[in-house]
């Protein structure tokens, strides 16, 4: 199993956000996680991405348990096993498009120039490689973020509202690319979204409500 | 309506208390250094004024005798002839706490406005406590302390000239062992009918008294140096203020826009922001002025020692400050705030209700800004060079200096960006490439602090090089000038003759050091005599001379002049030199004479005696085996009766001269360190201010697999590297600064030019210090980053942002 969340509980002070959530995801699978604002879907994604600690339960990524891992161990898992895509794109402003796309793959020591070139071409970024994030449109920035997430061929891709900042047409185009390239790379995709239309395109859908998951 | 607006604005500071502390701290430090220096200058000038008005309020003319002292009989004759004059005698007396200049006055005939005469009437016991055989000496509390425990009672009186003691004339004459007086002060109001001066006292000349301006002119360069340092520190402090105000304005842009949209007029908004800044300026100003007082109090004793040693100007070592000084300190704080906030205020004034709420990239690289700064740097450089090439005098020297520093500071961001781009071209790991690229992007956000650091480092290198060059030249010069092993001063010419007899056969040589004073080319000068001896031929520090200079001196021809006189009058070897007494000699050589504000002429000793027969023949330099110094000293004391104080060995004289030198630059050194400290604070506050803004840039890197620890280490390294690069760029700027100080400012201010030496080890030490300071400044933000909970970083990715 690529990603296995077992009975995850998470509270912020008195407020319980996740109340015994379990889910699993395999390679090549796509899973959409929906829910109302504040339902905890982003928190669940962050826990799955080894970004945020959890109170109880266990997270296994590629069979490796997160509980008990320190900052360095979690950073290693993020670097080697996970590609992250955020609603705000969160590109590195000081690096140009080419460097942004290659950044994580190079950090992990897994730069594959042929694959990166193919990604860049498919993402339509060949003419923008020397540009900096602030010079790109929202759609272009999100395409760079997808490229960055997939360049190292991580087994798991996590996307948090990937089209939340884009108009519908641009969002659709971006999602087409995300699904296509994730499939090509053979990664599993866990996506958080508000949009039922977007969620419908995933292989599986789960809904988070009052801290628990429903089909 | 204004109150709700003010409440909304002040809310920002409640949420960002550190920014408020930064703003107040920067402004307080800037004000402190500036007002501290002003306090020192004000105190010194007040002392000059008191010294000049010690007798006759500095206004009354005087009668002096070109032949020396004036007999009391002449005084009596003038009084009988109807002249309202008052006698004054001056000399040195030894007190238990050191030597003090004693002035004898007649309080009953002294002109109105003579502070000591007024004090004599006002002291406890009245004037009878001052006059009569047991009359007390009057002095300021500090000077009185030095005389306490002596043979005479001493009364401390506030407001007298510092460093002076006043006594009733008969008492002063007794203490000084004199029977005549030095001058007669003429009352401003004279009777209508009196006998002409030429009839009653034909040997006397009427002269203007020395004024505070004379002393002021002499010490101007010193005070100008202090002021320049104060200004530099003030500018460095303003960098902090500008950074804090600029950031606060950018962060509040959305609020300003909303307030405008809700109906607040542009004028009211600007007025409210100005009121807010005014409150900050006044609070910071009060703190700064108080700090300035402490700085001035700490530095004043050294300044007083410097002025006494270099210029003979007595300055009280304690501070008495007027309300005007406090108010001017507050005014400079307000003016500084206005200067630092003017661009931000302009931005608020132009803000429209529909302006973008998104803060512009405050800390982002901005090509246009950088180009504009480069253009301004070029302009400053041209002004500086223009002043250097076409200007004359101290002011153009300082314009050259200021222009160069401003140009260097403005060009710094572009230079750093270029260096970092060069470093980033080397392909390495992803993290390394990100490091260089990200560091380059941090330059605009840190540029103000780095400019402040550049200025402080350049000033440190420049002033350090000047002082060290001066020290090396000065010590070498002292070795040359103080070649004799023992210097002795006889009390009388009879004792001098007895001493010479005793010394016969006991020394290698006895060199007379006789001198007189006179006016050379319109300015007071010292005139010395020199005998032809290898001591001079081998050691005298000649800068320029005719080929056979010592042969000509030996033959009784020509004169040597010091560098100050030569530069002031444009003299060169071979030029004629008119001398007091209406005769002319020829300049045969020019010698360095550091630390002397006066012009100096050295004549062949025979010529000195022939032209100025009244010259005191009491001082001698003795060439002896250094091992015999103690034996000769003891012999002169026991056999000739020479007081120990009249014998100074070479080592003691050198130690004294070096002490004066060290004290002179102690103040400069202290201001140097303070300026560097302010620059360190600028870096710390900038890093802390930027720390929160950095999160959106660092969080993605963390999310992609770099630990917080690593990020913190990288942030620390970034501070150190930026400081180190700034230091590397500061070296050439500092060296140019040193050159300007040595070759332009010193020549204009003191009249001598020093050779420039380089001290790479000092630079290395300073470089390490600045890197350590930047490291320390970066440590706190880095530690904060390392210990930030992941939730802080995750918030960057959350939808609310």
UniProtKB/TrEMBL annotation, chain A:
Biological source species: Kangsaoukella pontilimi
Single GO MF descriptor: ATP binding
InterPro entries from the UniProt entry: AAA+_ATPase (IPR003593), ABC_transporter-like_ATP-bd (IPR003439), ABC_transporter-like_CS (IPR017871), ABC_transpr_LolD-like (IPR015854), MacB-like_ATP-bd (IPR017911), P-loop_NTPase (IPR027417)
Span of domain ABC transporter: 3-215
One GO term describing the cellular component: plasma membrane
CDD domains from the UniProt entry: ABC_MJ0796_LolCDE_FtsE (cd03255)
Pfam families for this protein: ABC_tran
PROSITE patterns listed in its UniProt record: ABC_TRANSPORTER_1, ABC_TRANSPORTER_2
Domain of life: Bacteria
This protein's UniProt keywords: ATP-binding, Nucleotide-binding, Transport
Name of the protein this chain belongs to: ATP-binding cassette domain-containing protein
The keyword Mitochondrion appears for this protein: no
From TrEMBL, chain B:
GO cellular component assignments: plasma membrane
Annotated ABC3 transporter permease C-terminal domain residues: 228-352, 671-790
One Pfam family matching this protein: FtsX
Bilayer disposition of the protein: Multi-pass membrane protein
Subcellular location: Cell membrane
Keywords per UniProt: Cell membrane, Membrane, Transmembrane, Transmembrane helix
InterPro entries the UniProt entry points to: ABC3_permease_C, Membrane_comp_ABC_pdt
Transmembrane segments: 226-249, 269-300, 324-349, 370-391, 397-422, 443-463, 665-690, 720-743, 763-782
PANTHER family with a match to the protein in the record: BLL1001 PROTEIN, MEMBRANE COMPONENT OF PREDICTED ABC SUPERFAMILY METABOLITE UPTAKE TRANSPORTER
Name of the protein: FtsX-like permease family protein
Species this protein is from: Kangsaoukella pontilimi
């Amino acid at each position: 199993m690529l990603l296995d969340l077992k009975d995850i509980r998470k509270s912020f002070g008195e407020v319980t956000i996740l109340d015994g959530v379990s889910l699993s995801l395999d390679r090549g699978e796509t899973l959409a996680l929906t829910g109302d604002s504040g339902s905890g879907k982003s928190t669940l994604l962050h826990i799955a991405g080894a970004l945020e600690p959890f109170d109880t339960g266990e997270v296994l990524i590629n069979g490796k348990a997160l509980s008990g891992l320190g900052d360095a161990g979690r950073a290693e898992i993020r670097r080697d096993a996970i590609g992250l895509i955020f609603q705000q794109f969160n590109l590195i402003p000081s690096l140009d498009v080419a460097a942004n796309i290659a950044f994580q793959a190079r950090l992990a020591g897994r730069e594959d120039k042929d694959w990166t070139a193919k990604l860049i071409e498919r993402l339509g970024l060949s003419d923008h490689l020397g540009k900096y994030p602030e010079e790109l449109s929202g759609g272009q920035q999100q395409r760079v973020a997808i490229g960055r997430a997939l360049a190292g061929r991580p087994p798991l891709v996590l996307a948090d509202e990937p089209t939340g900042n884009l108009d519908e047409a641009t969002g659709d185009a971006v999602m087409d690319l995300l699904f296509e390239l994730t499939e090509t790379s053979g990664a599993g995709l866990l996506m958080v979204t508000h949009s039922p239309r977007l969620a419908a395109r995933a292989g599986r859908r789960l809904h988070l409500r009052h801290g628990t998951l429903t089909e | 309506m204004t109150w709700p607006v003010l409440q909304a604005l002040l809310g920002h500071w409640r949420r960002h208390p550190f920014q408020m502390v930064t703003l107040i701290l920067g402004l307080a430090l800037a004000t402190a250094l500036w007002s501290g220096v002003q306090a020192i200058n004000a105190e010194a000038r007040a002392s000059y004024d008191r010294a000049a008005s010690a007798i006759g309020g500095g206004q009354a003319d005087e009668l002096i005798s070109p032949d020396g002292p004036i007999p009391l009989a002449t005084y009596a004759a003038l009084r009988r002839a109807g002249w309202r004059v008052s006698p004054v005698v001056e000399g040195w007396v030894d007190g238990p706490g050191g030597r003090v200049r004693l002035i004898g006055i007649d309080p009953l005939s002294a002109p109105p406005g003579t502070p000591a005469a007024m004090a004599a009437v006002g002291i406890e016991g009245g004037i009878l406590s001052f006059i009569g055989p047991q009359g007390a000496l009057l002095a300021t509390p500090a000077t009185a302390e030095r005389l306490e425990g002596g043979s005479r009672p001493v009364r401390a009186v506030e407001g007298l000239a510092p460093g002076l003691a006043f006594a009733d004339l008969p008492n002063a004459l007794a203490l000084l062992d004199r029977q005549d007086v030095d001058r007669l002060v003429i009352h401003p109001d004279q009777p209508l009918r009196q006998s002409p001066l030429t009839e009653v006292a034909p040997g006397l000349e009427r002269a203007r008294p020395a004024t505070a301006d004379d002393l002021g002119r002499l010490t101007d360069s010193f005070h100008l140096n202090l002021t320049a340092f104060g200004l530099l520190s003030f500018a460095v402090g303003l960098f902090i203020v500008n950074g804090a105000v600029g950031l606060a304005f950018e962060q509040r842009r959305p609020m300003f826009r909303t307030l405008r949209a809700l109906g607040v007029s542009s004028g009211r908004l600007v007025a409210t922001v100005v009121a807010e800044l005014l409150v900050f300026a006044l609070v910071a100003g009060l703190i700064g002025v108080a700090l300035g007082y402490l700085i001035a109090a700490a530095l004043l004793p050294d300044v007083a020692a410097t002025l006494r040693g270099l210029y003979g100007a007595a300055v009280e070592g304690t501070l008495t400050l007027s309300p005007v000084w406090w108010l001017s300190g507050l005014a400079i704080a307000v003016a500084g705030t206005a200067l630092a906030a003017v661009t931000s205020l302009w931005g608020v004034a132009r803000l429209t209700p529909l302006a973008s709420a998104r803060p512009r990239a405050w800390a982002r690289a901005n090509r246009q800004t950088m180009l504009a700064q480069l253009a301004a740097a070029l302009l400053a450089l041209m002004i500086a060079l223009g002043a250097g090439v076409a200007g004359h005098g101290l002011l153009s020297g300082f314009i050259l200096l200021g222009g160069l520093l401003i140009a260097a500071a403005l060009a710094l961001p572009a230079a750093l960006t270029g260096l970092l781009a060069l470093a980033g071209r080397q392909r390495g790991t992803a993290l390394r490439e990100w490091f260089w690229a990200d560091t380059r992007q941090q330059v605009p956000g840190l540029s103000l602090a780095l400019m402040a650091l550049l200025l402080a480092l350049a000033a440190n290198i420049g002033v350090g090089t000047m002082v060290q060059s001066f020290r090396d030249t000065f010590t070498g010069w002292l070795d040359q000038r103080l070649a004799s092993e023992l210097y002795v001063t006889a009390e009388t010419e009879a004792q001098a003759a007895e001493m010479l007899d005793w010394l016969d056969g006991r020394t290698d040589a006895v060199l007379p050091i006789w001198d007189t004073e006179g006016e050379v080319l319109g300015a007071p000068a010292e005139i010395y005599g020199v005998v032809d001896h290898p001591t001079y031929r081998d050691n005298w520090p000649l800068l320029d001379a005719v080929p056979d200079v010592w042969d000509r001196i030996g033959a009784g021809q020509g004169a040597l002049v010091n560098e100050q006189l030569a530069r002031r009058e444009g003299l060169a070897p071979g030029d004629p030199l008119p001398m007091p007494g209406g005769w002319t000699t020829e300049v045969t050589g020019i010698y360095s004479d550091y630390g002397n504000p006066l012009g100096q002429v050295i004549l062949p000793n025979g010529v000195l005696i022939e032209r100025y027969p009244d010259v005191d023949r009491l001082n001698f330099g003795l060439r002896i085996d250094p091992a015999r110094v103690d034996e000769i000293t003891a012999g002169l004391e026991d056999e000739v009766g020479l007081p120990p104080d009249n014998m100074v060995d070479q080592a003691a004289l050198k130690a004294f001269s070096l002490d004066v030198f060290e004290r002179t630059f102690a103040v400069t050194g202290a201001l140097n360190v303070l300026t560097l400290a302010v620059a360190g604070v600028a870096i710390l506050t900038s890093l802390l201010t930027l720390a929160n803004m950095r999160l959106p840039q660092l969080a993605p890197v963390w999310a992609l697999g770099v630990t917080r620890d690593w990020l913190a280490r990288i942030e620390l390294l970034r501070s150190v590297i930026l400081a180190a690069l700034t230091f590397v760029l500061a070296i050439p700027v500092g060296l140019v600064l040193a050159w300007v100080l040595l070759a332009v400012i010193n020549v204009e201010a003191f009249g001598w030019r020093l050779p420039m030496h380089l001290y790479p080890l000092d630079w290395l030490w300073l470089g390490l210090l600045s890197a350590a300071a930047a490291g320390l400044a970066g440590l706190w933000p880095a530690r904060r980053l390392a210990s930030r909970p992941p939730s802080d970083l995750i918030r960057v990715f959350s939808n609310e942002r």
